[in-house]
Each structure stands twice: as C-alpha cells, then as structure tokens.
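User: Nucleotide-binding protein, Sphaerotilus microaerophilus:
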Amino acid sequence: MQRVYISDTNIWIDFGQAGLLDALFELPFTFVSTDIVVDELNNPAPAGLLERGLVVETLAEEAVEQLFTLMAEHGNSSLADVSCYLIAKMQGLPLLTGDGRLRKQAAKDGVQVHGALWLLDQLVAHDIVTKAHAAAALQTMLDAGARLPPVDCAHRLAAWRT
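Assistant: Predicted structure for Nucleotide-binding protein:
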C-alpha cells in the first residue's frame, strides 16, 4: 500500500545535501509538497523533485489566508512549512518536518508527524540504503547544519556504524 506524506522544505534540503533524493523516491510513499514549498526551493532544484515524482498541491485562496494566522500562532515556522501543515491537517495525512514548533503543533492537533531520522530509518528498513550509507548521510546532514535531535542522532550513528 502506497502511503502519502506531506513534506516541508527542510526535508528536501537535508536529503538533497545528503545525496539521498533518488533513494527517498524509492520508498513506497507518495511525497506531496505545496506550491509555496516548490517556489521557495533552490537547492535541490524543484524540477528534479518533480521528475522524481513529487506531487504539488496548490492551496485555495481561502486556505492561503489561513496561513498568515497559522504563522502567527506557530511562531518561527515559515509560510512554506505552515502550508504543508495545513494540507496535512486538512487531508488527514502525515507531515514530514524538522521544524520543532510545527512538530509540536501537529502533535497537539492530532496530525501524525515524522522527520528526517524517521525517513532514514525507512530507507534502512526497506533495504534502499545500507546502515553505513545512512550513517554517512546523517553525518553529512549534521555537518551541513541540519537541526536534528542530538541524542537520537548519536544513537543512530552508533547503531549504523557497527
């Protein structure tokens, strides 16, 4: 069964930096982002994501108006990231994000939420990448400035490097 996940900007940036975009699209998932995310991305290039199978949702005008209210409520979350939260909430789909405030709000609102570490776990579990490859990719993400939970990263790095 194909699962659908709504993904925000940082997921694409982190996995692009780690060289894992092709691997992500090998998962039995459909990845969806909003037109706002696609418009915001430079690297990775949106065209490459679309070629790999990214589905882009365009928010209705009324929904766009809600985004500014949500941005105020969520603090530091970007317009693009809040747009993904709104789609996930409206459609009852899981959200993929690394934005801490967005994760907390999603969990509070009953929206299933996962991040980059969970996606790396999925790549390993589906035998798309080896544990060693996942460890190297995670280290690359961290070296590039990805804001991931340090304790969870340390556990995975230790497990995957053995």
